[in-house]
Structure formats: structure tokens, C-alpha cells
UniProtKB/TrEMBL annotation:
SUPFAM superfamilies: Thioredoxin-like. This is Glutaredoxin domain-containing protein. Residues 70-127 form the Glutaredoxin domain. Residues 126-145 are annotated as: Disordered. The chain crosses the membrane at residues 29-50. Keywords: Membrane, Transmembrane, Transmembrane helix.
């Protein structure tokens, strides 16, 4: 569980160090800007930006019941962040599985990607799609799809 917080914590610590250095050199405005930038990066890379993750087996069970796609992701993945941000509110309709927290999810991703943990991997109707276009994923959520 702590593994998912390593990158955000490092970003906050680095931002604090840079800001402290800038303040000591007499640039509090620049220090504040840098600190805000590092805090924003930490927030985007934290698990807080993603909907609550569930286990792979639970996600597959729920997907079989409601037909919604399952997204396998991991913190710090820029493609996962892009997918999440581009989906907007629609992202909450998907079932999200953090492969760093769920070994079964990681195994599912490896099985779909020739042994690689390539994310995001989106499973729609039992078929995996590696790093799909966010617009395509949004179409899978529409009632007419």
C-alpha cells in the first residue's frame, strides 16, 4: 500500500526542498509557484485522483453483471492519468483495478500483454485493450454502445 504513495511523497519533498532553497535566496514568489507545481504533480500522481480501486476478481464479477469496462492501472502512469482525466466524470462508471495493490490484476494484465504490465489495460466484454483512446473508452460507456 505504501508503494503507491512513494512518487507523490517524493514530489512533495522535492518541491519543499526547492521552495526552501528559493526562499533562502530571497524569492518567495517563485518558491510558492514551484511548491504549487510540485503539489499539483503529487496530486495527479497520487491514488486520490482515481476512483476507488477494487480487486480484479470483484471487478470482473461486477463487469459481468453491469457490462461496464474494467480498467487496470497503476499510480504514476502518465497514460493512466491521461485516460482518467479525459474521461472526466465518466471515469466513475468504470471498474478500476490498481495492479500494484492486486496481484490478480497484475497477472491479468501480464496475460493480456505478453508478460508485460502495460497499463492502462481496459477489458470490455472479456477482451483486453491496451492503452486505448479515451474517446473509444467513453463510447463503451454510452447507452447505444
Amino acid at each position: 500500500m505504501m508503494r503507491v504513495w512513494i512518487l507523490p511523497i517524493l514530489l512533495v519533498l522535492c518541491g519543499s526542498a526547492v521552495a526552501t532553497g528559493l526562499i533562502s535566496k530571497g524569492s518567495p514568489g517563485t518558491a510558492a509557484a514551484f511548491l504549487l507545481a510540485f503539489l499539483a504533480l503529487a496530486g495527479v500522481n497520487s491514488p486520490l485522483i482515481f476512483p476507488k480501486s477494487i480487486g480484479a476478481l470483484e471487478a470482473q464479477h461486477r463487469s459481468a453483471g453491469d457490462g461496464r469496462p474494467v480498467v487496470f492501472w497503476r499510480p504514476g502512469c502518465k497514460y493512466c492519468i491521461r485516460l482518467r482525466l479525459r474521461l472526466g466524470r465518466g471515469a466513475r462508471q468504470l471498474h478500476w483495478v490498481n495492479i500494484w495493490r492486486d496481484p490478480a490484476g497484475a497477472a491479468t494484465v501480464r496475460a493480456a500483454n505478453d508478460g508485460n504490465e502495460t497499463v492502462p489495460t481496459v477489458v470490455v466484454a472479456g477482451r483486453p485493450h491496451t492503452n486505448p483512446d479515451p474517446e473509444w473508452v467513453r463510447e463503451q460507456l454510452s447507452p447505444s454502445a
